[in-house]
Write a structure and sequence with these properties.
The strands form two sheets. Strands 6-7-8-3-9-10 form a six-stranded mixed β-sheet, sandwiched between helices. A four-stranded antiparallel β-sheet has the order 2-1-4-5, covered by helices on one side. The chain starts with a helix and ends with a helix. It is an alpha/beta fold. A hairpin with a 2-residue loop joins strand 4 and strand 5. The chain contains 20 helices and ten strands. Helix 2 packs antiparallel against helix 10.
Length: about 675
């Protein structure tokens, strides 16, 4: 979208405000020029200058002076003064109204753009966010829309100032068209010089927009990954990188300001030059009647002098508009929905599964990917059934699960619920009936209560407490400083991994979903946390259609159906016992993981034994060191006490030696015993 079409779009969206803005600007221009035109002849009249000073001038000046003629002579001065004050009052009133209307138009345009951007971000498909960086989106939503609004304000200012200049020019033409032509020619030279500045302002504006986006994007990326930055000690490198971006943006902004700084001197010089040319031209052109037309020339020069600031303002506004015009293109491209992915919205309300979810020869590939993520998937998930998806990393488990709540749609084939295509249902009703608990639990930087009630605002306090208890989360919540009202920090940083998972499960329980999706919800937890979370998951899955993505096969042995995937295809389906008896892909996965789990258990046992041994040695060694320190520091009062400490030290040494001998014999015995 070009800047011109953007302005046209704003006019179409707010026609009444634009119309009122133009009327106010026109009225302001009229009263502005008239008030200035009134001042000189009325002042001359009040100072009792001869009417001959205005003879030969335009009729408008004579009509201005004739305003007071119907009144008695003693009141004429007061009438003329009143006329000036009324004209000035109307000028300032219309200026205020113009500012008010322009501000309202600018505010509505800004909020309209931000709401449109927000609606786009919350309705576009997830694929959009794989292509755009969060920093770029934030920059467009904030900085670029702000600069676009500045461009709109500049455009309104251009229209208002142009109307004002047009009113002055008409009045100047009515006084002397010859002098006005000379003035227009001389001021056009300044306009040409300003055009160079405007062209450079457009270039600097585009550079400034790019540098702002790069700086915001990198800063947000670093803040989101601050733990990694500190882990690998890259603070100085990131400071150098972002500092470089800050300096580049600052440099672009500095040169843009320098460019703007040239506008005022050029306009001032051009204005003074034009004024001097007019004076010289007037002396030459009206040489024979200069005395009689001195009032006319004075009026003309006052009008022209009052016009010059508006000409300078017009040039500055043109430069400002050119500087911000690049943001119009950025925002327009961002809000353009024709090149962004949107899912089909159905009109049927999803009311729950009565029989089954069915995948019918489903294929899916991520946009831009060379290989499909899912290939010819056919699968039935019966109502109330727990179905586990297993396989190596990259097998397509998470992708298959993402199709159920319609985070993505199949590229071929279809998914049906009781025979109805999932795409025919209202997306909101489908997702309201889904519950998702993943290993990467997201929590808002707010209270525990807010996070649990998110998406379930109609639930009661009793429902909240019941869900927390069923998720094994109630005990640690009530022990927090403010219970359910405790703030948990960015992404729940104040909680452990197990606590975050239990909050996610409590949130899902509170929503009471028809379909539950568990995406490796316990894979990153320690043994104790996993046990607590697993108990909560069992409560959550009770009498519910559940799709489980499993990393630890021991957690899904009781699933009704286990689906084994490889390279986007289903290779086996059956119960745990059926697949083990078959001796296929699942059996191999299970054997490999079971063997590894045994090794892990043995390793944990060895670590625990070493820790016990270390504790035993320290238990024997600590008192002996204490006795020896007392002897070395000579903190004993008698020889009898000294001898007693020596005896205690000896006994402790003997006990330590026996402990070490026992540990050595045990290690030799374990090494000589063959494995079972």
């Amino acid at each position: 979208m070009t800047p011109r079409s953007f302005i046209v779009g704003i006019i179409k969206k707010y026609p009444l405000l634009v119309f009122l803005a133009l009327i106010a600007s026109f009225s302001g221009a009229l009263f502005n020029s008239v008030s200035v035109a009134l001042i000189v002849p009325i002042v001359l009249k009040l100072l009792n200058f001869s009417d001959a000073t205005l003879e030969g001038g335009p009729p408008i000046l004579s009509r201005i002076l004739a305003i007071a003629d119907p009144f008695p002579e003693k009141w004429q001065g007061l009438v003329l003064v009143s006329v000036i004050l009324v004209a000035m009052g109307l000028k300032n009133l219309t200026a205020y109204i113009t500012t008010y209307i322009n501000g309202m138009l600018s505010r509505r345009a800004t909020t309209g753009l931000q709401v449109s951007a927000l609606r786009l971000l919350l309705t576009v498909d997830l694929d959009f966010f794989t292509k755009f960086k969060i920093g770029d989106i934030t920059n467009r939503f904030g900085t670029e829309i702000s600069r676009t609004t500045t461009a709109l304000t500049s455009a309104i200012g251009l229209a208002s100032t142009s109307i004002t200049i047009f009113g002055f020019v008409l009045l100047l033409l009515s006084i002397s068209w010859q002098l006005t032509i000379v003035a227009i020619i001389s001021l056009s030279v300044a306009a040409l010089l300003n055009q160079i500045s405007i062209y450079r302002a457009k270039q600097y504006g585009s550079i400034l927009s790019d540098k702002s986006a790069a700086q915001t994007s990198r800063l947000i990326e670093v803040l989101r990954g601050i733990r990694l930055v500190k882990t690998v000690a890259e603070e100085e490198e990131e400071i150098a990188t972002i500092s470089g971006l800050i300096h580049e943006r600052s440099r672009a902004s500095f040169f843009s300001q320098l460019n703007f700084a040239l506008v005022s001197p050029i306009n001032e010089m051009a204005g003074i030059t034009s004024l001097l040319i007019i004076i010289l031209w007037g002396r030459t052109f009206f040489a024979e009647s200069l005395d009689s037309l001195s009032g006319v020339l004075l009026t003309y020069l006052v009008l022209l002098f009052r016009l010059l600031p508006f000409v300078a303002q017009l040039n500055r506004t043109r430069g400002q508009f050119a500087n911000c015009a690049a943001s119009i293109n950025v925002v327009s491209a961002f809000l353009d929905t024709s090149d962004k992915p949107f899912m089909r919205q159905g009109d049927r309300e999803y009311t729950g599964i009565k029989r089954r979810i069915r995948f019918e020869r489903v294929n899916f590939g991520y946009p831009g990917a060379t290989e499909p993520a899912l290939n010819d998937i056919s699968l039935d998930i019966e109502r109330g059934e727990t179905v586990a998806l297993v396989g190596t990393s990259g097998a397509g488990k998470s992708t298959l699960a993402d199709l159920v709540p319609r985070f993505y749609d199949p590229t071929d084939g279809r998914i049906t619920v009781d025979g109805v295509d999932l795409r025919d249902f209202s997306m909101r009703s489908v997702r309201r009936a889904m519950g998702v608990v993943s290993q990467d639990t997201f929590l808002f930087n707010s209270s525990v209560r807010y996070n649990l009630m998110y998406g379930s605002e109609n639930k009661t306090e009793a429902d909240l407490i019941d869900a927390a208890k069923r998720a094994n989360a109630y005990e640690f919540i009530v022990n927090m400083s403010e219970g359910f009202d405790t703030e948990i920090g960015e992404r729940g940083v104040m909680l452990s991994g197990g606590q975050r998972q239990r909050l996610a499960i409590a949130r899902a329980l509170l929503r009471d979903p028809d379909v539950l999706i568990l995406d490796e919800a316990t894979s990153a937890l320690d043994t104790v946390s996993e046990r607590l979370v697993q108990q909560a998951i069992e409560e959550l899955c009770h009498d519910r259609t559940t799709l489980v993505i499993a990393h630890r096969l021991s957690t899904i042995r009781n699933a009704n159906k286990i689906v084994v995937m490889e390279k986007g295809c289903i290779v086996e389906v059956g119960s745990h016992n059926q697949l083990i008896a078959k001796g296929g892909a699942y059996a191999k996965l299970y054997d490999a993981q079971f063997s590894q789990e045994n090794k892990d258990a043995l390793q944990r046992a060895r670590v625990e034994t070493l820790m016990d041994m270390s504790y035993e040695v320290r238990t024997r060694l600590n008192p002996m060191i204490g006795f020896l320190n007392l002897l070395v520091d000579d903190d004993v009062e008698s020889g009898e006490e000294r001898q007693e400490l020596i005896d205690e030290s000896y006994d402790a040494s003997v006990r330590l030696l026996r402990t070490l001998q026992f540990m050595e014999n045990s290690a030799k015995e374990a090494a000589s015993t063959p494995p079972a």
